[in-house]
Amino acid sequence: METTKVHFIRLLLMESLLLTTPLTTLADNTQRPACPMVKIEPERLADLNIPRSGHSIFRTANNEWVVAGGHTAGFVPTPTAEYYADGRWHLINTVYTHDAGTAIPLRSGEVLLAGGFEKHLGIGQTFTAEMYDPSQHAFNGFGCLYKKRAITGGIQLGDGRVIITGNWYHDDGIECYDGHSQFSYIKDVTVSRSKPYIFRLAPNDVLILGNRGIHDEPVSSAVVDRLQGDPLHVPLLEAWQPMHFDTGFQRDDCFIGDEEKNVYANLFAVQDTHGQIAVCLVQDTTFTLLPTTCPIPMRSRWGKIEYISPIVADRQSHRGYMIGKDNTNRLYTICIEYNKTPAAVTLYYTDPLPDIGFWCPMLTANGDLLIAGGTNGNAHSNYTPSATVWLLHFGTPTAAQTDRNGWFWAAGLVILAILAVLSYRLYRHQQQNTVDKQKTEDVHPNELRFQRVCLLMEEQKLYLNSELKISDVAALLGTNSRYVSDCIKTSKGCTFSHFVNTYRINHAKQLIAQQPDIKSIELYLKSGFSNETSFFRTFKSHTGMTPGEWKNQAG
């Protein structure tokens, strides 16, 4: 069996250079050429119904694209998911909210969702667990984690069990879902971590590593926990720290092995003390830096590149992808052809994309990358997440060409890109008419938007502001005034002003009941009205009585 493993990895990397190249050579950027750069044109798909970040994005066994959970505008967890079909996203309800939880596609075809923040603003943790059935587009709440968790991760073993570990401001440890209904505790971890890497080491064994603790503090990445057996000490990870990412990702995205051949290998990004990024290969319990044709680029001519996702491996094409961005809102994609020796590296980039959200990509069935929702890069991005969806075409031959092959290929790529853009604009113009019509017929977005408006009113008591405008509510929700007005009219059959005044009058009733001797001026000011005349007129309009009459009738 060991001979088979060695043979496979040598085939994978073409020769044994991986095991013989000194680490100092890999880090010496002056000895290697600059990375080739290729411009690409991403395709913008229909927007999500709900702007979201902190969500999970996954592809089901029947190749359906799904985003689930996360939080929407105002940093409010959303109990929703969306699946893509017929050129648009279809909104469905989850049983629980899973903001910064985990989603684990299972071999059964179902998807396990577990954990996440308990409250708004990323506070607390939850025990909740539910299962998604893609054949029915339905979620079923069925169980309870052993430990409440947020910013966690999981992976399915060969025997069908699911290992879950990692936490945020709460005890860590390794627990197991039995594949039916029960979650049980397995063992403690040596180092408590948030959003750890979980690498399959054998059919029923995993390695757990990372460099951020449960309070977001630095922890030793050289200590690697193991499901079966004692922790490992990895000297390489003292000099090269595993990169930590805030975006959600599937732990099997890093897997480049072959289960049928009993070979378990993973790729992940590491960074040295100077900030240089490299690619690390872990096979069995051996960690080695991957030789590359050029250093992973840390800057472009527009500025510093910030990488925001782990390596997502396409095992069919033997490529690994890592997403980055800069201050101009350009999107970057590092492509690592890991079956070559040294591994070929190409940097793809886009023009600035003002509306893009930055999130971990999902690999589609044909080898493209899908980015849905995410943070937009500003200081308040958790409060105003994105709803945009972009597709990066790497599964087609034209997208994989690089300018290493000279001006002929570059010119051909430009011509193809122009033709693609023209065709795409015509297609999008026709598609948008259909999508707009379908969206007006779908009541779900209005219903959910109305719930979010009510939540803002009740949680933040916006109605107590006498100068509250509909544009203020729209800004907090990351939408426009017309959408807010429409959702109120659809759900309550009234105007925004009437809707807000209902909250104010109910508040005034509570004040009268609690403080029967309250002065009139204090009553209307504390209820969100700017003057006494407006208060009395509105109170009688809503109740048919003056405040004094209502107090007498209420006893």
Q: In short, what is this structure?
A:
This protein is α+β, with helices and mostly antiparallel strands. The strands form 9 sheets. Strands 1, 27, 28, 29, 30 and 31 form a 6-stranded mixed sheet that branches. A 4-stranded antiparallel sheet has the order 2-34-33-32, with no helix packed on it.
The outline comes out as elongated
The secondary-structure class comes to alpha+beta
Number of strands: 34
Q: Report strand %.
A: 25-35%
N- to C-terminal distance: 85 Å
Protein described:
There is one protein chain. The relative contact order is 0.11. The chain is elongated, with a radius of gyration of 27 Å. Strands 1, 27, 28, 29, 30 and 31 form a 6-stranded mixed beta sheet that branches. The chain has a 4-stranded antiparallel beta sheet with strand order 2-34-33-32, with no helix packed on it. The chain contains 12 helices and 34 strands. Mean pLDDT is 84; it is low at 1-30, 397-410 and 434-443. The protein is 26% helix and 28% strand. The longest helix is centred in the last third of the chain and has 35 residues, at 407-441.
